[in-house]
Amino acid sequence: MRTFKKALIAAAVVGLAACTQSPTGRSQLQLFSSDELAQLGAQSYSSIKEKEKVSQDPALNQYVQCITNDLIAVLPSPWSQQQWDVTVFESEQVNAFALPGGKIGVYIGLINVAETPDQLAAVIGHEIGHVIAQHSNERMSNQFAAGLGLQLGGMLIGQEMDSDQAALIMGVLGVGVQLGYILPYSRIHESESDELGMRYMAAAGYDPREAAELWRNMAKQGGPTPPEFLSTHPSPQTRIDALEQLSAEAMPTFRQAPRANCPKP
Length: 265
Prior knowledge:
By secondary structure, the protein is mainly α. The protein has 9 helices and 5 strands; from the N terminus they run αββααβββαααααα. The protein has one domain (2-13, 20-256).
């Protein structure tokens, strides 16, 4: 029991020491340094570039870079001063990503689905939002904390029950942590990045109303989806409804911003 108490106290101290706030004011747990995350981001970026074919189409690359530059220009410091690397991949995947350390990837499949520059700006802004809100750090930290909590729980349960009972309860606890803690945090990350991306695209002169249109296009591309409570993403309709509300709030910013000029090739 003494070992358990010491481990519990240590976990509590680590948790309190690593609490921060996201750009929207939400409390976060971050146990890893920015340098560690940037290194992981660079490694992942290099790995993806080795596996995927990089587009050499100058018009497409200029188009994506133009939109990205517009968004970077309105980011808060120090993100607006950071060097961001952008790569277009010749893949029909409807996908894009941004990684810690300023690494952005956009797939041709997504460019095809995003019918306007505004819609592509919504996706790139959303992915940049994940980086600025340090969601990778938070997710890794949450998973680490959840694993530590299960280990501590296992120590306590093992002292009170026989091995069969302890194994059953720990299995149920594992499912509970996944559904009640890790997955909801993933959905929070997606919704928060939608909000941040909306801010950035509006400030950069891209029509925020196009974000909901993009997700209508995305919903047409998808097949059957799991129930929302089992998914790391909000359901398409939940997301569209939230984006429509956010776009109304972002319209004053958009109307005051110079109109973006990155025509789709």
